[in-house]
Amino acid sequence: MAKYGLVGKNIGYSFSKNFFTTKFEKEKRHDTYNNFDIECITEFTNIISENSDLKGLNVTIPFKESIISYLDKIDKEAKAIGAVNTIKIMKNGKLNGYNTDHYGFAKVLTEIPPLKERTALILGTGGASKAIKYVLETLGFKIIFVSRNEQDNFITYKDLNKEIISRHFLIINCTPLGTFPNVDQFPDIPYQFLTKEHFLFDLTYNPQITSFMKFGKVQGANTCNGMKMLEYQAKKAWTIWKR
Fold first, then answer.
1. Which domain covers residue 85, as residue numbers?
2. Is residue 33 in a domain?
3. pTM metric for this prediction
4. How far apart are CA 204 and CA 214, in angstroms?
5. CB neighbours (10 Å) of residue 62?
């Protein structure tokens, strides 16, 4: 019997525990999957020391970047992205970091309707947004990052106008805004300038239809939540743990 789990903050809503618990039951495995809900990344060492039977971990908000300094080795793609969401615990106790978010997002992108142009706005600047950027740049997208705070090479939500919205056909919400239980929250973009040529992708999956998606639908935009991306990245994590 092996133990797996998710490291994050306020993760009671988590998809991963349900996904893997159901998977283990279907496959008649005696493995377990646990939520390790921590306030601060420094608590991560306790998880490792107190769970000697751990074989693998997923990592979620807000620790995908800060976890890196606790790992012994990082896969080249995770290093290029600058964020880790999957950890394999080796037989010698070493911790190897990977990123499967980029794989999940790339798979979902192959399933969306063709875009008028390969242009995108990435809302948010955390660990998840880095995986999104990696995929889009690999596919030749022109990208603008949107942040609450003024930073080099980013614009703020106040800078968004009709011209910028009309030229960027894929808009990805990488912020936690709208995640249960704060379902009334949403990124502050000028939704009135969206059209049926836009595609809104929300990394949030609980609720299934976020306010961000609702406002896009009203303007005729196509929308998608993060559930499929999560399923794809979880399956990829499993292949890493088992190989």
1. 3-99
2. yes
3. 0.92
4. 13
5. 14
CATH number of the structural domain spanning residue 9: 3.40.50.10860
In this structure, are 213 and 119 located in the same domain? yes
Mean pLDDT confidence for 186-210: 97
Strand partners, 119: 142
Burial class (CB in 10 A: 0-12, 13-18, 19+), 203: buried
Cα dihedral 186, 189, 190, 193 in deg (nearest 10)? -100
| Domain shared by 153 and 194, yes or no | yes
Would the CA dihedral through 163, 167, 169, 171 be positive or negative? negative
Catalytic residue IDs: 64
CB 81 within 8 A of CB 138: no
Question: 90: which 2 tokens?
Answer: 């080796």
224 touches 45 (CB < 8 A) = no
Measured between alpha carbons, how far is 109 from 81 in angstroms, rounded to an integer? 18
pLDDT in tens, 104-149: 999 999 999 999 999 999 999 988 899 999 999 999 999 999 999 8
User: At which residue do the structure tokens 């875009």 appear?
Assistant: 115
The answer to whether residue 110 sits within a structural domain is: yes
Position 233 in a domain: no
8-state DSSP, 159: G
Q: How many helices (H) and strands (E) does the chain have?
A: 8, 12
Count: domains in the chain: 2
**Among the three residues 51, 74, 99, which one is the final residue of a domain in this structure?**
99
